[in-house]
Request: fold
Amino acid sequence: MRLVHTADWHLGKLFYGDYLTDEQDYLLKEQFLPFLRDCRPDAVILAGDVYDRSLPPVDAVALFDEVVTKITKDMKLPFFVISGNHDSASRLSFGSRLLEQGGLYISGDLRHLGGPVVLSDDWGPVSFVSLPFAEPAAVRHCSQDDMIRDWDQALQYLCRQQRQQVTTARSVCIAHAFVAGGAVSDSERPLSVGGTEVVSPALFAGFSYTALGHLHGPQQVGGQMIRYAGSLLKYSFSEAGQKKGAVLAEIDKDGGVCSETIPLAPRHDVRIMTGFFDDIMGDGTAVHDDFVLLRLQDTQPILDGMAKARRKFPRALALEMPQRQLSDTAGERRLDLQQSTAQQLFESFVSAMRPQQGLTAAEKSCLQDLWQELEREEREESR
Reply:
């Protein structure tokens, strides 16, 4: 059985203040859907985080509706979707039992979580088990089991309830969780504090293949049969070096699995450019339309740096100067925010921006007059 495994689409994602819906639209329509038409899988999987938030923008919902229609109605492919920690499980599950008739299997609301779905290939049946994201408290309430206190116990309960209904030799598990051993990225929202969200890969023992969502880097955890597809796009600069795409997995007649990541090319990539500002701006070959983070080696402030950078890189989003954080004045800026006056904080800011030159005598005199005027106005307004 041939499967296409994706996860973490995060439709409606904001990236440095701008929606990525157009970028997601391009990748899904111009890359992902043509790939499905070419490889003709037996099923498509989206392992959680369909949207970036529980109340997604209208454009994001419209995009998902269009893509789902093309997969299930036009291509006649079974499509398995589970809710992730960014989704609203109840909203995503609306009409799910009715939609199953069209080959769209959505699992989110625990109250309506059905049993395994069985598909068949030339070698017989394969069961698909869906384990949507659910917090321990939600599973405890649904199960009436007060012993469920952590994420591992919660997922173990859901997995056990589903597994006992599996009667086929081959099976696929779809889950959205942080499995121990996985590598994280900056764009993932923590499930909890202190590492208690981690679950054991042993929970998925016995499944032919486990299609995971939540971690944004494509990776295997605990072997070839447990795999994260990774996010649809690069959603943070920490993911700049990752190769995004979809996982193509094939299950043979004995339940053995071979899988590979099929790359999908975005319209605009995400990249980090490192060097001195003048060198980067003067490099005639470094001209492109990608989303850019400039990580500068300069130690002195760059006047109007972002505006200058965007003349060459229209999608420059951020500028970092890590060397300036190691300047000689770093220790002098460690002020107690609760005890420092506004004037002291401003002087610290000036020292950070001009490490070689603080405030001049004339500037300090002007600043003193300004603070006195502001304090006078505040006293008058409070009367």
Observations:
- Residues 342-382 form one domain.
- The chain has three domains: 2-263, 270-320, 342-382.
- Confidence is low (pLDDT under 50) at residues 326-331.
- Residues 247 and 261 are 4 Å apart (CA to CA).
